[in-house]
Structure formats: structure tokens, C-alpha cells
Amino acid sequence: MKVWFRALVIFLMLIYQNVEAVEVQGLYEVEIIAKSEQEQDKSVAIKDAMQRLLGRIMAGKNTLQDNIVNNVWVNAENYVSEYQLSLSEMNHQDARLMRILFNEKQLENALRLSQFGLWNEIRPRTLLRLVVEENGKQQFFDADTMPWVDRALQKASKQKKIPILLPMQDLRDKQVLAVGDVLSAYSEYLLEASVRYEVVSTLAGKLVKSHGCWKAEWTLYFDAKIEQWRSTCSSLNNATLQGFQGIYDRLSIFYAAKHKVKSVDGIIVKVSGIKRIAEKEHVRDYLEVLPMIRTATWLGAGNGYNRYRVFYQGKRSDLIKRLASTHVLKAESFLKQSEKEISYQFFNH
User: Fold this and answer.
1) C-alpha–C-alpha distance, residues 271 and 332, integer Å
2) Do 214 and 168 share a domain, yes or no?
3) How far is CA 156 from each of CA 149, 159, 170, 199, 239, rounded to the nearest angstrom?
4) Would 1 be classed as within a structural domain?
5) Per-residue model confidence as pLDDT tens digits over 155-181
6) What is this structure's pTM?
7) 144 C-beta neighbours (distance < 10 Å), count
8) Which residue range is the domain that position 247 belongs to?
9) What is the pLDDT of residue 89?
10) Going edge to edge, which strands form the sheet with 80-87?
11) Cα distances (Å, whole numbers) of residue 193 to 142, 163, 182, 196, 198
């Protein structure tokens, strides 16, 4: 990613405390266990690490069936920039913790012709509403009183590189949201309580400890859709990871860039409802952060609209969808959209 784009994202994060996108760290770095320091075991560990890496940057399922992706996996050692070995916490005395850094630029070039898109390190945070049930008692997740659950969440977040945001659980949350509201697949209360966090996605989950293992139920609210899945009885780490895998499967498809798309097109984005200079700049910065958009320039104001010239890469229909996927802009569907202009209303909080 370009240096100027990284700087822009960090700058925006400093200005807007509730910005929905963050830059995840260590996207191309993987920690894996090698059975020993022998070359054969290190080679196996590197391939396993590459498979885990592909599972956090490639959008889509069964990616290894793609010849290009499979070739990268088979030749994983060719993409290693550096690695370190250290003692493992496992009981096996020969086991080693292997920290591997893969070459980002080399991998992006190799995967460019794949049929799958690549998801970069700029990722939206997902609000996590979690209920934990042990010994028949249900309560909201609390990191201080449930450190074992917190460790599992942090591990899953790190493995899939999915940034999460935990609710404050303050008086305002408690007034509108009960445990039962989190567990409901169509909870209006949950969505109402989540608006204040300005996130694009919310994961509602329930972890249940039963007969020495953990089961889980998950509901993801994203892109005006509700999707549900379950995790069968397994370890706490596995049950939690399946929840984060569900987030990744859905968000990566939406946000990943397809390298086969080469053309750059331009369009005028008209935004109504902007009343202050800070709002005008906020919209411009928001436009520039979107993965599809290369540049966004403010042109002027008139007839109730601020006009921005946007150059983007990809399909126009995808652009329109992404522009209205957060709480910043709302599509003005009652207006006739043209090929050269699209109109939105600024969502004034």
C-alpha cells in the first residue's frame, strides 16, 4: 500500500475517534508451531503458515483450487522474507514457535492474476455483542471476569486479522439492551444500541459451555443482511474462531479488490445536507479511504449539494453500493441517477 495512503488513514483515525476502518498490524506475519528445527519440519510449518495467510487476505472459499493460489502455497518458501524460531509452550521439547514474515509485494504480484480478490490491511471494525453461558447462567461478556474468553477472542482476531470493537456496557447500553435482545436474530433493540458505535457490521454471539466443550451461535448484521451460523461442540478457541471466520467470509467478499480490474473511471458524487466545513472535509476523507476510490476532489457547492470528482477502479454498481454501506452517506433513491453523477445525503449524527 502506498505510504501516503497509510498516512491518510492514520490521520483520519486521529481526527475521528469513531472511524469505522483501522489498519491491522502484521497482516503478512504468521506465528505457527514447527515440530522441530529440522528442515523438513520447517518447510511443513511454512506451508501451513502460508495457508493461514491466504485465509486472511484472499476473498472467497476453496482458494487453493485456483492454480495460481495453489502454486503460491506449494512454493511458500520462495515468499519468506525472514523467520525466527523460539521455544514453544507445547510439551514436546523439540517443538518451536516459528514467526514468519512473508513478502507482501512479491505475494501481491504473484496473486494478481488469481480469480479471487485480495483484502488489504484497511479493515472495518466489527462490533461484538457476546453472551457467555456457563452452568446455566447467561451474562454479557466481560474481559475482566472472563479472561479465558478474552484470550480466545484475541487469538481469533489476530489469526483472521478482524478488528473488533467491544461495547461499553454503560448505562445507555443497559437501558436499551438485555441479554435476550442479543440472542434474537431480528433484534431491533440490538441494532438501535449499535448505531452509536458507527460500525458497518455487528456480530451477535452466544458461547455456551456444555459437558466440557463449547458451542456457539452467531448472527452477523452487515450490508442490510442478517446471516446466522453455528459452531458445533469443540474447544473454546475453535468455537470462537468459527465466529470470526464467518465475519471474514462475508466482509472480505465485499471489501476485497480484484486485481484483474484495471480500468479507472470518473464520476461526480453530489452530497446534500452538508452544513459545515468540517463535514465537507469529512465526506471527502471518507471517500478517499474507500478501497475502490483512487482520488476524491471537492469541486464546489451549489443548489444544496457539495460536488466531488471521484476516480474509482471497479464496477459502478459496486461503487454505489459501497458509498452507502456505512452511516456517512445515504442514497437519494428518489432522484434519477445519471451515468455521470450520483447523489447522496450526508448522514448528520
Assistant:
1) 9
2) yes
3) 11, 5, 26, 19, 10
4) no
5) 999 999 999 999 988 888 877 788 888
6) 0.70
7) 6
8) 122-255
9) 66
10) 29-34, 96-102, 80-87
11) 18, 20, 10, 7, 11
